[in-house]
Amino acid sequence: MAIETTTSAGMPPIETSHDGLDGSRMTKSSAGSVGDAVGDKVQKLRADATGKVRGLVDEGKAQITQSIDGIVEATREIAEKLDAAGVGPVSRYITQAADHMAGWSESINEKSIEDLFDDTRNFVRSSPAVAVGVAVIGGFIVSRVLKANDAPAPRRGY
Questions:
Q1: Number of Cβ atoms within 10 Å of the Cβ of 94
Q2: Which of 74, 64, 67, 70 has the alpha carbon at shortest distance from 94?
Q3: pLDDT tens, residue by residue, 65-98
Q4: What pLDDT band is residue 99 in, cutting at 50, 70 and 90?
Q5: Going by C-beta distance under 8 Å and a sequence separation of 6 or more, which residues neighbour residue 26?
Q6: CA 106 to chain centre
Q7: 13 Cβ neighbours under 8 A, 6+ residues apart
Q8: Prediction pTM value
Q9: Which of 37, 43, 111, 139 gets the most CB atoms within 10 Å of its CB?
Q10: 18 by DSSP, 3-state: which?
Q11: How far is it, in rounded angstroms, from Cα 77 to Cα 90?
């Protein structure tokens, strides 16, 4: 004679198991292979994301160096005009400034993003007051650019 057990509500007890999603029993080896598949997928997603970020950073570096090169070219033109106007000492200072900016451009272009972050971190640690000043000036410039882009077109009194 079989003994039937029921719960306090008169229902048969629910069997608990470590089943897979499809109701089949999951073994340790199948659970391990699922874990390996998930780990592989996570690593692939991480590698894809890292590649995309590096691509964006490289594009940003190219834009920054292009901008700096444009400033260098304009600065050198100003220095040449000042030299032609007879203001030699000022022209030499401006040429030196252009040379320093050209060096920055080359440095940014040649270094990896990790090296650039390390250089920035070291600069902030060695000169925190200058870093704060640069951040404030940069924030002011960005806010002015954004404000100029959002300004409504002027009304004409027709």
A1: 20
A2: 74
A3: 898 899 899 999 999 998 898 888 888 988 998 9
A4: very high
A5: 18, 19, 20, 34
A6: 20
A7: 5, 6, 7
A8: 0.51
A9: 111
A10: coil
A11: 13
